[in-house]
C-alpha cells in the first residue's frame, strides 16, 4: 500500500475493514435482488422500482422527472427502462395533462398485476438479505448511516430516498393496499 501523504488521509485498518465490507454489500446485494426478481417476475430490480413507485400513486401515474427522483435514477437511464417496460405493456407514456411539454408514465393494468405478483417475494428477499439480519437497533443505525451517506451523495435532495416512505404509517398502508390489490386480481 502506498505511504500516506499529507494530502491523502489513508484509511486505518478499522476504516478499511468497514469500507471493504460496504463495497462487498454494494456488489452482492444488487445481484441478489436482481436474481430473485429475474427468476420470479422477469424484472430487474430497477424495473421493479419503477413499477412499484408508480403503483404507490393514486393515479398510478408520475411525470418522468418525478419518477426519476422516486427511483434515484437519471432521466436517460429511466427513459431507457420505461421504453423497455412500455414494449412489455407494463407502462405507457403520455403527454402530461398539467404541462404538455412534459411526459407522464402510467402503470398499465398488466404492470399493476406484475407488481402485485412480484412484491411479496421481493419483500421476503429484502427481509432475508437485509432486515432479518439486523436487530431493531441495527436497523435504526442503518437508517442513520444511509441518511448520512445520502447527505453526501445527494446533497441537493434530488432523489426521494430521504423522504420515502412519506408517512410513518406508509408501510402499513402499502401492505393493506397490496392485500386489497391481490384480492381484486383473484
Question: Mean pLDDT across all residues, rounded?
Answer: 88
Q: Care to count the β-strands?
A: 3
Extract low-pLDDT stretches. 168-186
Q: What is the strand arrangement across the widest sheet?
A: 1-3-2
**Name of the CATH superfamily:** Winged helix-like DNA-binding domain superfamily/Winged helix DNA-binding domain
CATH topology: Arc Repressor Mutant, subunit A
Main beta sheet: 3 strands, antiparallel
Give helix and strand order, one letter per element, not per position: HHEHHEEHHH
Explain briefly what this protein structure is.
Residues 15-151 form the HTH marR-type domain. One of its GO terms (molecular function) is DNA-binding transcription factor activity. The protein has 186 residues and is mostly helical.
Describe the structure.
- The chain is mainly α.
- It has a single domain, classed as Winged helix-like DNA-binding domain superfamily/Winged helix DNA-binding domain (Arc Repressor Mutant, subunit A), CATH 1.10.10.
- It contains seven helices and three strands.
- The protein has a three-stranded antiparallel beta sheet with strand order 1-3-2.
- The protein is globular, with a radius of gyration of 19 Å.
- It starts with 12 loop residues before the first helix and ends with a helix.
Amino acid at each position: 500500500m502506498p505511504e500516506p501523504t499529507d494530502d491523502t488521509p489513508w484509511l486505518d485498518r478499522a476504516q478499511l475493514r468497514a469500507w471493504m465490507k460496504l463495497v462487498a454489500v454494494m456488489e452482492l446485494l444488487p445481484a441478489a435482488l436482481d436474481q430473485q426478481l429475474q427468476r420470479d417476475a422477469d424484472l430487474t430490480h430497477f424495473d421493479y422500482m419503477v413499477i412499484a413507485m408508480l403503483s404507490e400513486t393514486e393515479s398510478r401515474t408520475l411525470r418522468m422527472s418525478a419518477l426519476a427522483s422516486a427511483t434515484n435514477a437519471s432521466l436517460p437511464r429511466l427513459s431507457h427502462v420505461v421504453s423497455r417496460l412500455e414494449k412489455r405493456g407494463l407502462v405507457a407514456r403520455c403527454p402530461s395533462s398539467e404541462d404538455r411539454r412534459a411526459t407522464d408514465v402510467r402503470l398499465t393494468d398488466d404492470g399493476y398485476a406484475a407488481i402485485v405478483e412480484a412484491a411479496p417475494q421481493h419483500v421476503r428477499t429484502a427481509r432475508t438479505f437485509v432486515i432479518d439480519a439486523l436487530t431493531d437497533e441495527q436497523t435504526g443505525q442503518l437508517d442513520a448511516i444511509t441518511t448520512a451517506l445520502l447527505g453526501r451523495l445527494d446533497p441537493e435532495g434530488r432523489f426521494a430516498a430521504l423522504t420515502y416512505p412519506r408517512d410513518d404509517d406508509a408501510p402499513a398502508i402499502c401492505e393493506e393496499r397490496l392485500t386489497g390489490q391481490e384480492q381484486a386480481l383473484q
